[in-house]
């Protein structure tokens, strides 16, 4: 486990004009996954955009987002230490698999090649370093995206329906890998989904948003 982190969402309220879209108060400890469920339009992606620092100007938000006790809500997205994982793996098409992983590593890391090799082995993709991401299966791309995120040493992770594009057989396996690695890294994570099985496999607390 790297340094343990804690994420606190204090009295978050996001509105659209005069209408309150969502209210949330929660704490996520090191290695914990909090699942936020809700129907389409209930504000799941808006919540993640707010936490990540790119909420559309149409919305108004108040509350505090505390990372290890420090309010990060005034900080720009790149200074928040939030890692994001989306439905789409969003690998860089002009870089090899190893290039995508190296991109995640902070500049200060000296043994980059060794780290990348170890990371590939950890996700069952040893020998894939020089592959073009376009030649990977959906599950393999998802694993590379996950590892790129973890190598970037985030302080907390936001997951936006990351399993919804995978086929049913792969989904369970991918969830296990994601949640095991997040736990092992001691990262507080917030998963938004409308799939109840995602929430069950995450194994943590669950909050339901009402529309
Ligand atoms: N930029 C925007 N300006 C105005 N309204 C918006 C904007 N983005 C989203 N909305 C509205 O805010 C509400 C919440 O949208 P959001 O995308 O967060 O929902 P969601 O729960 O993630 O839905 P889904 O599960 O379908 O992705 C919706 O009613 C949507 O129409």
Automatic annotation (TrEMBL):
Keyword check for Transmembrane helix: no
Primary enzyme class: hydrolase
Gene name of this polypeptide: potA_2
Organism of this sequence: Halomonas lysinitropha
Listed EC numbers: 3.6.3.31
Classification via PANTHER family: SPERMIDINE/PUTRESCINE IMPORT ATP-BINDING PROTEIN POTA, SPERMIDINE_PUTRESCINE IMPORT ATP-BINDING PROTEIN POTA
SUPFAM superfamilies cross-referenced by the UniProt entry: P-loop containing nucleoside triphosphate hydrolases (SSF52540)
Domain of life of the source: Bacteria
InterPro entries the UniProt entry points to: AAA+_ATPase, ABC_SmlMolc_Importer, ABC_transporter-like_ATP-bd, P-loop_NTPase
Source species taxonomy: Bacteria, Pseudomonadati, Pseudomonadota, Gammaproteobacteria, Oceanospirillales
Signal peptide annotation: none
GO molecular function list: ATP binding; ATP hydrolysis activity
Limits of the ABC transporter domain: 4-211
Pfam families, A to Z: ABC_tran
Name under which the protein is recorded: Spermidine/putrescine import ATP-binding protein PotA
Keywords: ATP-binding, Hydrolase, Nucleotide-binding, Transport
